[in-house]
Amino acid sequence: MSAVTASLDLPVADAALAESVRIGMETVEARLREAVQQTDQLADTASRHLVEAGGKRVRPMLTLLAAHLGDGDRPEAVQAGVVVELTHLASLYHDDVMDSADQRRGAAAAHLVWGNQIAILVGDLLFARASRIVAELGPEAVDIQAATFERLCLGQMHETVGPSPTDDPIAHYLQVLGDKTGSLIATAGRFGAMFGGCDAQTIDIMIRYGELVGVAFQLADDVIDLSSAGRVSGKVQGTDLREGVPTLPTLLVRRAAADGDTDASTIVGMLDGDLSDDARLAETIEALNEHKVMDAARDESARWAHDAISTLDPLPQSPAKAALQKFAEAVVERTR
Q1: What cofactor does this one take (predicted)?
Q2: Strand, coil or helix: 173
């Protein structure tokens, strides 16, 4: 098992590729820790908070895998991996404030340690650091980063506002996932292909692949939040339920209730009740897990992952392509 891919239990069959990505990820990790260092003690401690908590490092891993569709040894790919992970970390500081989350990656959420204002400012600091690093990669990379940041902000805004009365709540939710998760994962794949020297078709394929696998990844996390005790996702089980954050299982059960499913209607009543009590939360989670909407949510995540794999079809067979296929499969396998 490669140390790089252990977070998704993803074996890289080709030994040379596995070793190259492992070395690249070690460099990403070291540079990431350098990038978050601040001269101010408070800013330094708060900036290192989530880096030191660990994480899957999905985005830089994808950047390095995509780079191996071309020349994976180019140093720009590692630098781009630092940019996308730093951007992701910055967004987490903001997300946890918006969602009033208690934990992130097994550690107390930054806003609970230092307050909302400091957490938001630290997120801004990390976005600034990412911008400085990406500037070294050239104007096209800066433009891509800016467009990605715009989508991240729009996704958060649309999630906060919610769907309008005329919107399909599930379609609205999938669009939010595309903006909040798919956009940055697409940029990770795009940067990898770009800085690996790949042609325009390969870059376009990686953009599409990243969008699709990013949504699949978040849909899988929706299921994991209800079917594991946080061991995989790094979140406390039922966090989204307790905070009233929409997820695909809850949206599906609401739709089923509206269509006359009495069991679903009972669950909706539980969702709309007081879930601050641990016993009530556990009862609601159990009821959801026993309903068919959980299988439907798993199937939807698998569909997005399958579509991501299909986008790779035009690429010639290679160890990197095989690893990207396995990457998408592993995203969904976490829910089984």
Answers
A1: Mg(2+)
A2: helix
Q: CA-CA distances (angstroms) from residue 102 to 70, 108, 230, 247?
A: 42, 6, 13, 18
CATH of domain 6-327: 1.10.600.10
DSSP 72: T
pTM for this structure?
Answer: 0.89
CB-neighbour burial class of residue 197 (10 A; exposed 0-12, middle 13-18, buried 19+): middle
Look-up of token digits 């492992």: 22
Q: How far apart are CA 104 and CA 235, in angstroms?
A: 6
Predicted confidence (pLDDT) per residue in 56-93, tens digit: 889 999 999 999 999 998 999 999 999 999 999 888 87
Q: What is the rounded distance in angstroms from the CA atom of residue 126 to the CA atom of residue 119?
A: 11
Please state which of the ranges 174-178, 222-226, 230-234 shows the lowest mean pLDDT.
230-234
Two tokens, residue 2: 């490669």
Side-chain half-sphere CA neighbours of 335 within 13 A:
27
**CA dist., res. 249 & res. 154, Å (int):** 23
Longest CA span, the chain: 59
